[in-house]
# Entry
Amino acid sequence: DRVRFALLLSMPGTTFRDVQKSILLLKEPIADPALAEFARLLVALLHEEHRSDEASVHLAKLLHEEKKRSESLQEKIDAITNLEKNMILRERK
# Structure
């Protein structure tokens, strides 16, 4: 029953998801060897999912920073282009 509850707590997309509690429940000793092996596998998967989530958040932050940098550079390019156009127009007068 404890493993089932831990499995339920680890379900993605639910309001009651609690991965840390699930891992704690799964790390408690389990008498059935097959169930214990399943629990170890699930703990490993949950840890890997956590690492992937952290990497995803980090990459999203980097992407956001690069977008801001790109926008800033584009604004500078546009300003230089406008300066060049104005200089050309002044030379023609």
Notes: Residues 2-92 form one domain.
